[in-house]
Amino acid sequence: MQLIQYLINGISIGSVYAIIALGYTMVYGIAKMLNFAHGDIIMVGAYVSFCITSYLGLPAVASIVVAMAVCMLLGIFIEGLAYRPLRGTPSLTVLITAIGVSYFLQNAAQLIWGTAPKNFTSVVTMEPLHLFDGQLVITGEVILTVIVSAAVMIGLTLFTSKCKMGKAMRAVSEDRDAAQLMGINVNLTISTTFAIGSALAAVAGVLLCSTVPTLQPTTGSMPGIRAFTAAVIGGIGSIPGAMLGGIVLGVIETFSKKYISTDFSDAIVFAVLILILLVKPAGLLGKQTQEKV
Amino acid sequence: MKKLLAMVLTVVMAVSVFAGCQPAANNAADANTLKIGMTGPLTGGAAVYGTAVEAGMKIAVAEINAAAEKNGGLKIEFKSQDDEHDNEKATNAYNALKDWGMQIFAGAVTTGPCLAIAPSTVSDNMFMMTPSGSSDKIALTGNNIFQMCFTDPNQGSSAAQLVFDKKLGEKIGVIYDNSDDYSKGLLNGFKTKATELGMTIVEETSFTADNKSDLSTQVNQCKDAGCDFIFLPIYATEASQILTYANKIGYAPKFFGCDGMDGVLTIDGFDAKLAEGLMLMTPFNPDAAESKAFVDQYKAMMNDTVPNQFAADGYDVIYSIYNACVALSINGETPADEVCAKLVDYFKTYKFDGLTGSGMTWDANGMISKIPAAVVIADGKYQAL
Amino acid sequence: MKKLWNNKDTRRNLFTYALVIIAFVVVQIMLGGGMLGYAAKGFLVPVCVYISLAVSLNLLVGVCGELSLGHAGFMGIGAFSGIVMSVVLQNLIPNDVLRLIASMIFGGILAGAFGFLIGIPALRLRGDYLAIVTLAFGEILKNVFSNLYVGTDANGVQFSFSASGVSLAEGGKMILDGPVGATGITKLATFPMGFVLILFTLFVVLNLINSKEGRAIKAIRDNRIAAESVGINVTAFRMKAFVVSAFLAGMAGALFGLNYSSLTASKFNFNTSINILVFVVLGGMGNIMGSVISATVLYILPEALRELEDYRMILYAVVLIVVMLCTWSPKIKGAIAAWKASITEKLSLNKKKGVGNNG
What we know:
The structure holds three protein chains of three kinds. Chain A is mostly helical. Chain A has a single domain, classed as ABC transporter involved in vitamin B12 uptake, BtuC, CATH 1.10.3470. Chain A is 72% helix and 3% strand. The N and C termini of chain B lie far apart (80 Å). Chain B has two domains: 197 residues, Response regulator (Rossmann fold, 3-Layer(aba) Sandwich), CATH 3.40.50.2300; 130 residues, Rossmann fold (3-Layer(aba) Sandwich). Chain B has twelve helices and 15 strands. Chain C is mostly helical. The longest helix of chain C has 29 residues. Chains in contact: A-B, A-C, B-C. At the A-B interface, helix 1, strand 1, strand 4, helix 9 and helix 10 of A face helix 2, strand 7, helix 8 and helix 9 of B.
């Protein structure tokens, strides 16, 4: 029973990683860039939602919608201003710019919202389920995060395989030049990708802070790195892979905290990542690409 | 030739950047202004502590300067520098303050930077008083270094004594931050005393700065071990996470924190009901009558945030130094080493009343002795335990 | 000699050395003349350290084309092992300079050895996957450092991963104390030693780049498959670059560690690795002189911005983004070039007009 409780806790934090990783993986798959500012967009989303519920007193749903809209605009804005001009340059230059954006967002958040951490009120009002005489507790957040991340995963998979825009995204991801020749508007496609990725980041921010209530300007950075790791474990660029990677990472982290050592849980998580990459160099569900000569 | 020119230009540029960091020309000492400098994390993850101390100090400086006439016109010029809670940046920040002509150093805020700067203050003969660096190693670095807050082992051991005296728990659990000096210092003090008194710690679990985003495992571990009392030698932010999660899963042991827990009630958005029954040791009570003027000013300055003990310690540091300087007729022209010698001598017998205690004294090592008040939170307010 | 001078690479390398030496002499003169403030004096050693780190990372990222996000990990190995060594050798080598050199060499060797061990699995991967594996190793190393307890007493040195594992006899000294890190370090680092370190780093890296090995490494970067097909042992050369880079980072780390009186493991985190990478990218990948200059300027920039207080780091971020855009974006570069051209055109027009009036 204990084991199951920790498994549930692992899935809980894992599905938060998963939903962040979904945003990472989409942007990477299509724009071919590591967007290190993704974690900070999560933080912005959570702050926006916090302000709307705490200061304006609006319901949680409204705050999520506004947070999604704000992050979407922010994502489009960042992409257009900082990343688009660098398209076609070595991927490292975009990486550095993304880090600049990340510093910028963190420091801007500090100037706007101050340094004192906020305590995010969970958007879930559901009472926790107590099973087996209270030996097993499942909180409403766990249920919501798992459902939302699964729904997002399915939604994204359908979107990229059925919708016209989604197909365009896949085309851009396969071969940008060929896509352009086929009449696909590459700039619009990539902007849309950022818009969707950032809107997802807002949802992820709200879910993250509902599970872990502390909100401060650096809230996004560590989960951001974890989620990036999760995306790589699952195979970066693969949508189901991000989901799987997130859950695997969350469960490993919780189990290593419980059964091995709370002090070394980081080292263990990253060691598992390295092991997985050695066995499957493209991640669990990643596509193994053959190099052409 | 063009390249040579470019190179010469680069060197000139690099040198001018260096020169730009030189002491400014207008640093001439003025007899009526005492220069006090402070470093602390003003940006980054630990910024909440640095900005609180900074604000507390600024309030004290403003009050002193407004009433300077009473004290022969001696004013304070105050400068704060960001150290990002990083030893390297802290050293740079301290050097920048020396260039500015600092006479007294009222920093640093966190233990790591304190330990990085302390040896330099010893060799510079610079008086140092840290508002909140609580490791006992800080004051032991040199006799020019003083602390305004409790030292960790002492506080940890008095916490254990209190738990024993009041019979607060049978099965004791501890959740601490293994990457934080403060937390480990408290834990060691607590454990030593607890073993001495024959108390049993059934669960001891930790987190680190990198994996603290999820503390549910740690709470569950304590729950599995059947703890009815949990000692939390950690800061309010993480404690609020633990309280929230424990409440969610319906686990309600007694929680007990130290001075870092102060401020838990005023975290923006935190449901104060969750902290009901929480016990902590704090030298500062924002609800006390003598704190009111300070609390009001702080709220006006910091967006309605209620000050915690960090801010109050900062406030006390400035006043204790200023009052001593007035008594010793130290002024803006007294060189730093002379200021240091005089203050060190004076602090041996100094008795100071401030927001964080009355009749505070310092021992030969520079460690403070003041009474930690143990409080319990009831009806959203601190009540004496 | 003439022939040497005509070689573009050699000329460029000589310029790099000359730049460093001139800068050293100028700073020494300023030091002698008391023209430097405390803050500027405090920058000297870390700037040297970061220059060495940037140059060694440039070997990996710029020359070899392998993205590494864990350089701070090697720096950390060097720093902590250097500190331990300096304490252990206290009685054996009483001379500070010799002890510093020994500690740096030890730090370098240990970092190089770890570089080799990490390289075996890591170098099987490429591109972004190598980047994430180096990031992972960096985080693992940081996690291990912050749980490492090292103490020394009359019986020798003791290591442990728990605080209770090190039990010291009377008069023993705790060197590394887990998350508290190293405290009470004797500061051995000096600016001249930093200068020597830069020269050594430049010497190793520039010689490697301009040798047969260097050409092979560049060939691997530009086209791995083609390089392999002409008989270049790809793995061996990548490994060589990786180990050399780790070794140099370890030496720089040891100097860094011995420049501060206390040091925690959290210094060697992802952010530090990224900062070094920023120096490399802004200085120009593969451009060694660029690394030297950008490490100096970018280290001092946030310090020089201290007067701006709260807006300091946000301004640094903006500068970073703008510089990246201006130096890399084809459009913006084009716009700047067009603007420059229009100005020169106007200037020459004005000149012509002036000539006409005079006539």
